[in-house]
Design brief:
The complex is a heterodimer of chains A (about 375) and B (about 325). With about 375 residues, chain A is an alpha/beta fold. Helix content of chain A is about 60%, strand content about 10%. Chain B folds into 2 domains: about 1-220 and about 295-315, P-loop containing nucleotide triphosphate hydrolases (Rossmann fold); about 220-285. In chain B, the strands form 2 sheets. A 4-stranded parallel sheet of chain B has the order 1-6-7-8, with helices on both faces. In chain B, strands 3-4-2-5 form a 4-stranded mixed sheet, sandwiched between helices. Classes of the chains: A alpha/beta (about 375), B alpha/beta (about 325).
Chain lengths: ~375, ~325
Amino acid sequence: MSPRPAPVLDVDALLDDPDTRIIVCCGSGGVGKTTTSAALAIRAAERGRRTVVLTIDPARRLAQALGMEALGNEPGRVAGARGELYAMMLDMRRTFDEMVYAHADPERAEAIIANPFYQTISSSFSGTQEYMAMEKLGQLASTGEWDLIVVDTPPSRSALDFLDAPQRMSTFLDGRMIRLLSAPARASGRGLRKIVGAGFSLFAKAVSTILGGQMLADASAFVQAFDTMFGGFRERAAATYALLRSPGTAFLVVAAPEPDALREAAYFVERLAADGMPLAGLVLNRTHPVLADLSATRARAVAEELRSAPLAAAVLRLHADRVDLAEREERLLSRFTSAHPGVAVAQVPALAGDIDDLDGLREVGERLAGVSESAAEAVGSAR
Amino acid sequence: MSGKGGTGKTTVAAALALALASEGRRTLLVEVEGRQGIAQLFDTAPLPYEERRIAIAPGGGEVRALAVDAEAALLEYFELFYRLGMAGRTLRRMGAVEFATTLAPGLRDVLLTGKVKECVNRRDADGRPVYDAVVLDAPPTGRVVKFLDVTKAMAELARTGPIHGQAAGVVEVLHSPLTAVHLVTLLEDLPVTETLETVDELTEAGFPVGSVIVNRVRKQWLPDRSVAAAAGGRVDAGRIRAGLASAGLDLPAEVIDGLVAETVEHAVRVNEEAAASARLEEASGLPRLELPELVEGVDLGSLYELAEALRDQGVGEQALAESRS
């Protein structure tokens, strides 16, 4: 039984639809999320939409190509692009600072920012980058000046981190734990003490022994100062979360034709469905479609006989390898597709070489949309 | 073992653990990021926080695997030094344990590397190390130096206490000749750039860098003399057609065009790989190992092939010589 082919993702229709206001590109690390985001953004802008792309950690030369190196934490116009394309790189620390200033009176904001514990939270807490990406997305959306916002997501261990980070951060900042740890007797109340018994006091003592009293004191002061703005903070996170669930948002799951990346993609697709988030489709990056209709077996057999024509023999052998690779990629994709038959797929044939200028991004955009000349030539098993 | 995301570091770590386990030795393969990458690779159920045999090496050795979990490691400590009893599990359910490890990100790393150190130093009844080698599937290049740099992590913890003593032991092991940080890369621009940056960072932080392992090396079919022209788009379609015809293969023009296009892409890739390889050579000067691309993908059988390829390049010889002397 051969599986039904996946529906093709119509990228141009998605980009052109005035109702598409936000595109979120997610996926595991190393699959080309940043490049995909930038390519989608430039294509959208050049097709007439006022577009901004929020990148997280672009490679240096891509950042240069988009003119982002000198920018602050705000969108800047991309000079080489036709239409209106703006790009920005997330500055996690500044986004966090700005948020503190926006939610607390100046004096309290200063106190929060000066707290040593804030330094830890704003720079190395494992969900901060995801949280700040969401915050920045919320800010960009609330200005109403963009037809389309394209968001890259942080290079997490798992694509799911992007959705889980705000909740983790909320739990962390809501103060209950820190109060328990710094003054367990006072804060825990009779109910909790009954459940946990003396264990909690011991635990609190142990944690304090390990972390040091100063750190707990700093953390405690931080959470207290933060408490007053916490309501606003959580409201905002909730609003951004709601934005992600709205029909104007489209999630694109990006993957490479590798088992790990596709497994992550599958997790993410399932999670989006469970959370009621709108999935537009899967972008399968860097595929190697066969360009010449000739079987691998035949090519290898003929190559064996071609002792006097080394160039022709080499061409046949490299073609045979390519057929094998393409078949493997298709097998991986069909495994994904049979588990998730409704998910539309855009395959993006690999570009030879790294993409570090606007023309490279345009070419990726054409391949995403399935209109590139070289991509359209794919034949044989890839058809 | 570290490397940029997508370079295959878990696969290479597993192959190395297998290679080092042959001839009756015993190795431990450890993961720390909660991804269950080892279980997926060996096609088994998710690993618990417990060392268990996962593969038999050629010649009778064994590979054990362990998925370290920071929260479980913290509770393990507390059990050792404070008697928490049933409260431990309740605390974990409440999120208190996660909270404690989140409060000080360095604590997490100390707990994870601490467990690895304990495995490295563990001795059997005769005083011999339980493991001949411990292979750590470490975080990717972007995070690995911070992860290993326990000295810095310690600065944010209390100056005394059990964890502090633990951390001091970790520093000692990680900065000693017992340790080598190997980096997996592909012959592509970005992975090579990250590899070189990480080599510098590791050296600066005082970690012994082992070798660079170039993964997924693909075959070059074009003769060297044809590569430059083909990469520039100059492929002699007439000669290919004539060559194929001489073997009785007459192909329509569009198939020849397709073959030419594939040849150009192949040549561009070969060129770029050569440039990446030269950059790696020039800048790092580190020993280099190579592993072939497996077109069929990685399964348990191919892990043995990769382990074999590592052994063919001398991996495990020194350890074997030492264990025999």
